[in-house]
């Protein structure tokens, strides 16, 4: 009888020990927030008037796409004038080079014409840069979030004109205990879901950033997961849950 009692006690102890181990090693759901992969405020590099805006809030945009034009009439005329001058200078240089090869004119004359071509080409590059400075292009593939000015308004140097955001990828921000540092590594895949969507969107995200510093007050450190959001269902600002395995 006593042997049976000891066996039962030992069995119960082993079960509780096993349950305790399972409890400490089972993955835990933690809550975080979704952030855009990139969010950029577009501004002008000079004081000028807006002549056209080709996008509205909510529009999809591509990297390199011209979305705002500033007044550039004089600058475009300067480019056209220099292009004509370059055509004339290149014609004169080719003519002078042929005459030199035929021993009709001196080498100095051909060199002078060549230098004139190079000078006009340099001026043309500057004029083209002046035009490009008045074309505001998107630095990313994404969405227009805020349009802060309208056509006809003048903007100052570095004044915000538009905010654009990349949402095809999201950064999922979590704050975890320092004990989790030893079980996380860059590139590690983590199961995630977005509970605010119906039905909840589920997927996997990769560890993109592990903060090397632990906050002294809270004992927490930051972790960012990279989530591919090509279908665009999840949105920045949404709550997100991730299943992290504790130590």
Description:
Strand 9 and strand 10 form a beta hairpin. Helices cover 32% and strands 36% of the residues. The N terminus is likely disordered. It has 247 residues and is of the alpha+beta class.
Summarize the structure.
The protein is α+β, with helices and mostly antiparallel strands. The protein has three helices and twelve strands.
- β-strand percent reads 35-45%
CATH class category of the largest domain: Mainly Beta
> Which of globular, elongated, flat, extended, rod-shaped describes the shape?
elongated
Q: Which structural class do the helices and strands define?
A: alpha+beta
| Cα gyration radius (Å) | 32 Å
Helix content range: 25-40%
Going by CATH, the homologous superfamily of the largest domain would be RNA polymerase II/Efflux pump adaptor protein, barrel-sandwich hybrid domain
**N-to-C SSE series?**
HEEEEHHEEEEEEEE
Tally of separate helices = 3
* Mean residue pLDDT: 88
Distance between the termini: 41 Å
Uncertain parts: 1-10, 12-24
Q: What strand order characterises the main sheet?
A: 1-8-11-10-9-12
Please identify, by name, the CATH architecture of the largest domain. Answer: Beta Barrel
What would the keywords be for this entry?
six-stranded antiparallel beta barrel; 247 residues; Elongation Factor Tu (Ef-tu), domain 3; alpha+beta; 36% strand; disordered N terminus; 32% helix; OB fold (Dihydrolipoamide Acetyltransferase, E2P); 2 domains; elongated; four-stranded antiparallel beta sheet; 3 helices
